[in-house]
């Protein structure tokens, strides 16, 4: 079936089997391998993308249901000219990543969180992150990064 | 464009590609004409394999081929090798049964691979796998180690009586018996070190291809040590000459030991690629990883600590059952023996130690190294036992540790269990931790919690670990079948940019940054001008890889040695150009100078001269500026520290909150404090995971893995954890070139005991002296309820 | 066999498509169905996507109640000022389902039609004496949740909305599985002028009410009224995370907490 949607600010039309999940389309057909698959029970959050600005699990989203919607993947966060998104910069500045595998999902979750919570507490953030599993960092520097990235997105130093 | 050296915290070189989604993990790689493999795995823990009928699968859409154990046997494919053998206390070598790449005759754990289906797409391969008919004759599985050792137990391997792989011992049993006779008090404990499943976030994956024209294989695999995979798989399993096999481990999404073994899937795919002459890819699903990744820990231990009337330790006796699962994994038998018993002295003067380990086969997933590997288990035994002794003798838990601790002046310190600690200052770590964790204020916090109806507890664990694996000669004496050196090449390009080829593997540890700092400091080359190359046997000289907190300690040492050689050669070139003697040329701040003059050549000028040798001592010196070094450590390194943990338990519900965690760790010289702190955070949280959340549980009857997905295996999440306070304490290592000790595993080693000691301390009013891991709310509630009903009955 | 994907334009159309399918499933947020398909535990022939049906994502305060459309997502219930004003416990419950990403996709209709024994919403519906509105009838919550993953719905019946009465006070407390984040035990307590309703999820094969607890709380709506009540563990679930005895105990612990919170919140 044909589905038209916006992917990283560009209109696309794809012809897919109706059972195709967004994560597979991105990774196998669109060459957007930044979206990762870390589990098969929809719990790890490595596959998060923004769907009309909301963070959702692309492993549990059929391409068939994307007609007219807007999808942003981790590849779509930075400026087209390569300038990092403030949240990406914050992760780099605060050592918010180690092996990098959960990082795309963390960034997507973080951007969504920051958009909704201009002035969050650390406790709110830690609860928000329950859909993202990281095995490397113990979350501490991820939390630090997102607090800093949120401040940066809302232009507080 | 400046040199960034040791002790600084530049942002990581590797970050940008990960942050922008441009990492290149194995599952991201696509090759032309690539087929997909799916493994047919045993649903039984223990069964005889009868006929395997692949005919329906072969007719299914897209299917290219099906391979079974018989196909591999016919092709004389070897078994998966063990890299470290052990010998029993009776002098007998361990039992080492054949570990087939695909099961033959019997399956020995749930998930044991019996066949591989290759198809055009992963979906087709998976669908066809359902059509492979395997005729299983189920056998009674042995699941618990206690059952496995019973005379009537079914045998996992027919040629291993009583499922006993090895009855191993270290230490002086007679000396411990003497200590027992003299002891004023003997503290005793029985405990379980729970089975863990490492779960790096990137599931394992492999792609193999065969180039018929060159008769050459390439394997892309999620490995912590590609050279060792090439060595083991090429040399011992598939009989592919080393020069005809390239193994590439590109970006790897976390390892923690899980990716430190040679796995059946790697060998099966490489074999198949050769047979089909086309690339084949396999990517593990998470649920598949639960029943195919090697697992960790799983000990049952009894131990006794003998003390005199002043609370001084006289002796330690430990008896452990260690689970190997259904087969011996690459380093399996080494972990609960050589990486366990030598750590039992901890940071204490313990004159007599004896440790017996019975290494046991069961119908569970094979067990091998998981972050810490043997050392968390040893620390847990010792630090729990010290706390029991403190409770029973009435000596304060800090005081009893102080009384027995090795003082700074007593280093180097020879323990009774092989290892000699070169350096350390455990008292300083403890003192600092007491201050940073505000132990003076704890009783007030406990009282305040009690007013809220909560039991608050304070736990302490000290630890020492042996890492920087390893001195090859000593390791060889202990049964290692390979060396444990590391290698590095420093290639200075004509433009003075530098490529470093290193045998370790970076999968989150920040090597691309730390190693660049070392080179930048040593050669004065700008940090940006240095690239670290790893993970490709065609690009990097033989190296042993990353595990055992060894990359900086052993690999960094090799790198620094290679850098020294570059400087020596540079001085020779400079001596020629500056018309001075070699002895008079000094290298400092990126310049070769004639001592006592202002005549100098920059590093870039020397690099240029080395590659354009018009004015060059060609008679005595080769052109080029590239040096290689191998480094074999003279001893293990011994990081250590003191961790404090505070918990609160709701006695009504057993719910537990981790309130505070403080870690003071001595990892030796710190190259990049930002990265070290990150390593400690991650390690501590994995240890907290073991203590409070994680448990690989098998059904005792069927051998099915009950906690086989993230729905049931509890990974720590952000909202389970407090912010951890890290405070370093530095004692330089006495024998590594930069004084580094390694930091990858420290957190995981110190934390389980600290957390459980806090839990037990919280329950102290109930007379409880031990709680097994993980201390879940259900378990804590049951303990509290039993203690309360016991005390009511006693009234 | 290729999956057929349908985007019906009306509720009637959707019901017809499902009735005509060999093994069809309605797709709402997909938070259970899609993972189940991924694990090959379900292999439907047809998916009938309800998500773009008009009018089913809505929240409305009526004279004596609250109506939530079946396609209303957990995040929208959690964030709704209308729900927070009418039944704050319901908004709080929705805000603690799964994780944020589940709450963006999961819907109230999907959740109750699935009737997972550890899901949160069934407890709310049962305790609040809600009415499930479908494309063909209205079903009282007491008659809706029949057993493990079993409801009173016909195969092709579509939930369109849930109607909640407004309680005097209510609260939901749960003990979550630290791994799956589902409720090991969840207790919803609702106090009405004519009595108290208490529903328990996670603990048994299906959400259930406790007459003993309700009676005790009807006579005195305070935690201490429950001191002498204990729950029979023999019918409760035992699994890796909580055995039946613990669940029985936690029902009482959580009920007391919920009563205390309901009193405090009112």
Describe the structure in your own words:
The complex is a heterotrimer of chains A (157), B (795) and C (266). Chain A has helices at 22-29, 86-93, 103-116, 122-128, 140-153, and strands at residues 2-7, 10-15, 48-51, 54-57, 70-72. The mean pLDDT of chain A is 96. Chain A is α+β, with helices and mostly antiparallel strands and 157 residues long. The longest helix of chain A is centred in the C-terminal third of the chain and has 14 residues, at 103-116. Chain A folds into two domains: 2-76, Roll (Ubiquitin-like (UB roll)); 86-153, DNA polymerase, domain 1 (Orthogonal Bundle), CATH 1.10.150. In chain A, a hairpin with a 2-residue loop joins β3 (48-51) and β4 (54-57). Chain B is α+β, with helices and mostly antiparallel strands and 795 residues long. Chain B folds into three domains: 31-139 and 201-254 and 259-290, Alpha-Beta Complex (Aldehyde Oxidoreductase, domain 3); 299-469 and 635-794, Aldehyde Oxidoreductase, domain 4 (2-Layer Sandwich); 488-631, 2-Layer Sandwich (Aldehyde Oxidoreductase, domain 4). Chain B contains 20 helices and 28 strands. Chain B has a seven-stranded mixed β-sheet with strand order 3-5-1-12-9-10-11, sandwiched between helices. A five-stranded mixed β-sheet of chain B has the order 7-15-14-13-8, sandwiched between helices. The longest helix of chain B has 27 residues, at 551-577. The model of chain B has no long low-confidence stretch (mean pLDDT 97). Among the domains of chain C are: 1-49, 2-Layer Sandwich (Uridine Diphospho-n-acetylenolpyruvylglucosamine Reductase, domain 2); 169-265, Enolase-like, domain 1, CATH 3.30.390. Chain C is built from eleven helices and 14 strands. Chain C has a five-stranded antiparallel β-sheet with strand order 4-5-10-6-7. Chain C is globular and about 60 Å long. The N and C termini of chain C lie far apart (56 Å). Chains in contact: A-B, A-C, B-C. Chain B binds chain C through residues 126, 287, 652-655, 693, 695, 697, 706-707, 710-715, 717, 720, 776-778, 781-782, 785, and chain C through 39-40, 175, 177-180, 240-243, 245-246, 249-250, 253.
